Amino acid sequence: MLTYVARRLLLLPVVLLGVTVLIFLLMQLMSPYARLALYVSDADQLKQGREGLREMVELLGLDDPVWTQYSRWIGRVLHGDLGWAESARQPVAAAIRRYLPASAELALFAVVPVIVFGIWLGKIAAVHQGRFVDHVTRVAALLGWSIPGFAFAILMLMTFYGGVSWFPPGRLGWAATRIVTSDAFINYTGLHTIDGLLNGNLTVVADALRHLVLPVISLAYVSWALLMRLMRSSMLEALRQDYVVTARSKGLPEREVVDKHAQRNALLPVTTVAGLMVAGLLNGVVVIESVFNFRGLGMFAAEAAVSLDTAAIVGFTLLNGILLVVTNLVVDVLYARLDPRVRLR
Amino acid sequence: MLPVVIAGVSVLIFALLQFMSPLSRLAMFVNDPNQLKQGPEQLEAMAEELGLNDPPWVQYGRWIGDVFRGNLGWSESARQPVSEAIRTLLPASVELTLYAAAPIILLGLGLGKLSAVKRDTTLDHGVRVFAIVGWSFPTFVFAILALMIFYGMLNWFPPGRLTIDSMRIVSSDAFRSYTGMHTIDAILNGNGTVLLDALRHLVLPVVSLAYLSCAMLMRLMRSSMLETLNQDYIVTARSKGLSERVVVNKHARRNALLPVTTVAGLMVAGLINGVVVTETVFNYRGLGRFAASAAMQLDIPGVLGFVLFNGVLLVVTNLIVDIMYAFFDPRVRLE
User: Fold this and answer.
1) Whole-prediction pTM value?
2) What confidence tens digit (pLDDT) does each residue in B189-233 have?
3) Domains (ranges, CATH) in chain B?
4) Which domain holds residue A336?
C-alpha cells in the first residue's frame, strides 16, 4: 500500500506540470499585451501609454520563445506570484488567500450531506429495491437532479429570504461582521463557523450557520442525486454476484453480507464519480455564491470572467486544476484501499 | 413512477411559491402584460378573482390544470407567454445539446476504453491529462477563454446563432423551417450557405458544453473498464482463445458500460444546466439564455416554466436510461 501511495505521489508533480503547460499554451494564443496582467503586482504598472506597455512587454520577454517564457512564468507561480486581478483590485494570490476559506467552508458543509446521503440512501434503496423507501428516495433524487442549480438557488432565495426572511443572503450579518473584524476575535482559519467555535463566540457561529443553510442546501441537493443513483445501481449489481450468494449460504447475517461483501465492491465506481464531483463542487460554488452574494472564490471567479480579467481567470483555473489533481490522487488511494488488486500493479 | 416525479416537481415548486404574496404570483396566471399594469386595488381584485388567497391545494389543482392546457403565464423577460417562448427557443437548445451529446458519449466512452486497454502507455497518460484539464476548467471559464481566443483574437468562430446574411435567408419565404434546427432545415432545403454558417456558430458552444462532461465519462469508463478486465470471465474468454478484440469489445465493454450508462444518462439530461451558461456566454438564443435572463430579472413564470420543462425532459431521459440498462444487462429485465 505504501509503495503504491509513494509511486502515485511521485507522479503528482508530473501531472501538475502537464496542467500548467496546457494552461500556458492556451494563453499563448493571446497577444503579449493581454497577458501583461499576469506579470505585474500593482495596477499602476498597467496604466501607462502604449510606449510604456511595449517596453514592459520587451522587459518581461513576452515575445521570447514559448519555453523560455514558460520557465520564467512557472518560477513566478511557484513563488506565489500570479499577477494582478483587476476585477478584485488586488493581487490574484492575495485574493485567493482571502476568499478560499469562505468557499472551503461552503464546500465542506455541502460535501458531507452529498456523500453521506448519496451513498447511504443509494445503498438503502438498493437493499429495499422496489419497496416504498426505494421509490421515495428515487423520486427525491430525481427532483433534485431535475431542477437546475441556479434556478433552485433563486427559488430558495425568493422563498426563504424574499417571502419569509428566515435565511438572509451574504456571509454574515452586520453585527457578526463587526465582531469578526474586531481585535478581540482571532481568525485562525478564516472559516467563520470554526473560528466562532474556537473563540467561544456562539453569536458568530449561529449567524454563520444561518447564512450557510441556503447555499449548502442548494449546492448539495443537486449533486447528491447522481451519487445516489450510481450507488443504487452499483449496489444492485454487486448484490447479484456469486460471492454474495456464497456469503449468504455460509450463513452470514444479512447485515454483514450487505455492509462488508456487497458495499465494498459497489463503492468502486462510486468512488471515481464522488471524487470528481467533490472537485467539481468548485464549479457549482461559482453559481451558488453569485446567487447568494456569498463572498468567496466562486464570486471572485464569476466577476473575473465577466470583466475578462485574464490573470484572475488563470489563477482560478490553476487552483482548480491543483485541487482536481489532488482529489484524483485521494480517489486513487481510496480505490487501492477498496480494491487490493489495484495495488499490485 | 414517471408521472409521480413530474407531479413531485410541480408540487415542490408550487409549495415554495406559496411563501410569496399573491400579488407577486399574479404573472403566472395572465397572458398579457397589460393586465399587470393596473393600480394596486385592481391587482388585489384580480388576485381575489383568480383565487390566489384560496387554500393551497385548491390553487394547485387550478394551476396544474392550466399547465396541462399549456398555459404557463406571461414571461416579462422574454416579452411573450412562457409556453410560446419555450416553443420558439427549444429547437436552438435541442440542436446544441444533440451536437454536444454525440462527442460526450462517443469520445468519453471511446477514449475511456482505449485508455484502460492501453493502460500506462503514452496514450493513457495523454487521455488522463486531457480529462484533468477538461475537468479543471469550469464551463464558463472555458467558454469565455474559447470566445476570447477564437473570436476575439482569431475571428474564426463568431458568437450568436447565425450571421445576418443567413438570418435573412432563414426568415425569407423561400426557406421552409421544418424543425427550427438550422442545420437540419438547411439540409432539407438544400441550402449549403446556411448549413455552413450554422455549423460555424455551433463549434465553440458545442466544444465548451461537451468538454467537461466528456472528461467525467472518460474517467468513469476507464476505471470501470479496468475493473471488468480484472474479472474471471475475461481470463476465461482469453483462455478460450478469443481474439483480444472480441474479449475487450464484447466481454469487457458490455459489463463496463453498466455504471457508465447511469451517469451518462443523468449527464446528458443535466446538459440543460450547462446550456444556460454556454448560451449566455456565446449569446446563442435558446432556452438556456431565456432561463438565465428570466432568473436575473426574477421573472417567476419564466423560471418556473423552464424548471417544469426541465423536469419533464429529465424524467423522459431517465426512462430511456432504464430501458438501455435493461438492454445491456438482461438480468434487469427478469425482475
Assistant:
1) 0.78
2) 878 888 888 888 888 899 888 888 888 888 888 888 888 888 888
3) 2-71 (no CATH), 83-141+211-334 (1.10.3720.10)
4) 99-344
**Helix or strand (DSSP H, E) at B80:** strand B80-81
A323 grid coordinates:
485541487
* A137 in a structural domain: yes
CA distance A213 to chain B (A): 16
Res. A345: pLDDT tops 60: no
Cβ-based contacts under 8 A for chains A and B: 177
Q: State which amino acid sits at residue B152.
A: G
Residues of A in contact with B330 (CB under 8 A): none
Cβ–Cβ gap B259/A339 under 8 Å:
no
Residue B274 CA to residue A148 CA, distance in Å, equals 9
> How many structural domains compose chain A?
1
Instruction: Give the Cα separation of B239 and B245 in Å (integer).
Output: 14
Distance in angstroms (rounded) separating the CA atoms of residues A211 and A191? 13
The per-residue pLDDT for range B262-282, each reduced to its tens digit, is 788 778 777 877 788 888 888
Gap between the Cα atoms of A314 and B273, Å rounded: 24
Q: Show the cell assigned to A314.
A: 488563470
A219 touches chain B (CB under 8 A): no
Residue A144 has pLDDT above 80, yes or no: no
Is the Cβ pair B263, A268 closer than 8 Å? no
Say if A161 is an interface residue toward chain B (CB within 8 Å): no
